[in-house]
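Researcher: I need the complex structure. Ligand is manganese (II) ion. Inputs:
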Amino acid sequence: MIDGQEPTDPAWTSAAGSPVSAAARATFATMFAELAPIGRDPATGGYHRFAHTAEDSRLRAWFAGQANARHLDVHEDRAGNLWAWWGDPTAGEAVVTGSHLDSVPAGGAFDGPLGVVSAFAAVDELRARSVRPDRPLAVVAFADEEGARFGVACAGSRLLTGRLDADRARGLTDDTGITLAEALRATGRDPDTLGPDPELVARIGVFVELHVEQGRDLIDRGAAVGFATAIRAHGRWRYESIGRADHAGTTRMQDRTDPMLAHAATILAAHTAARKHGAVATVGRVAVEPNGVNAIPARVRTWLDARADHETVVRAVVAEVTRAAGVEPVEESWTPRVEFDPRLRARLDGVLGGVPALATGAGHDAGILALAGVPAAMLFVRNPTGVSHAPDEHAEPGDCLAGLAALTDVLAELLTGEVLVAAEPPA
Ligand code: HGY
Ligand code: MN
Ligand code: MN
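Model: Output:
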């Protein structure tokens, strides 16, 4: 839910001590108010904004509208990501900022959109401060960051950097059997253009993503804004258990081949192994066929999301779950641990004057770009509920504005400083 989404709401317009201009405060609230109804379920307050759907098309239209209103040149890259350029994109290494607009099922309002809204508002604020960039700036909205429809997290940034093979991507299917290629065609795009764009990636001098915190670190440390130090290793695996479909009432227990038993073992093993290894593991999605109350299932698919500080720990958890499941899983996506560039972090910390630094268990496009060699950084904005990927996800207007001020300060430094990223971190 977004409280105070009205541009006139005092939470946004109160001038006392606000770190950003009145115009930016009003624009920020207006942008969130425009996004609020897109994909929102009035019954739960949750968001359904899946890739390459009608909601996605409305979000893309919104992005283009915001870019045009700021005279930024919009283009969609070969991976479906949206870019809005301030300055000539070929005039030197670009400073890029943004996030994503898609959501998980029944997702929160801030995961993704906060970074894109803040990026557009930061352009306004930079202009209000008469900052004259020495290099191009781009606002980006990465496609399909959550992988909620086609199963691969950060699909847009993985395609862009070549971490997701275009042929594999075209064949990914959603739970109705529609392929990504078909979904792209249905929204007027050509799936044959999908693929990496190394020339575009090479032009990114630095990427900074602002994101709502997905946890309680900043609450507990009493800070509105923080820095990311690392993203923990994480992946997704799909287990398929095959049974023999039959009648629930006439099939003796000793005669059954019920795949639900393997499914249950998978879940219990995930919880046991995660606690044992100090990891986290989640089974949040199941597909049962034919999914009838009075029919023994023919097939059960179980998706495992497992994460830990290091890859070896994640692999140990998955190995134990696999033993319990009795079947080898398909690895749908894998992201090794990412340590964000310490040189960049040291430089930006100098700008922000020492905000808390925290590792995260949430994956982000900034992590995928960092894995591709792009100097990347993340700013987090306090989430008073600590909840994410659910309607209770929240950020207070004052903290959103503190995040906007921090992002603006960081971008001003990167746009006008001599060197994008210092050769060595300061002593
Ligand atoms: O799943 C994640 O960690 C991210 O929100 N995509
Ligand atoms: Mn997310
Ligand atoms: Mn996100």
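Model: Summary of the prediction. The radius of gyration is 22 Å.
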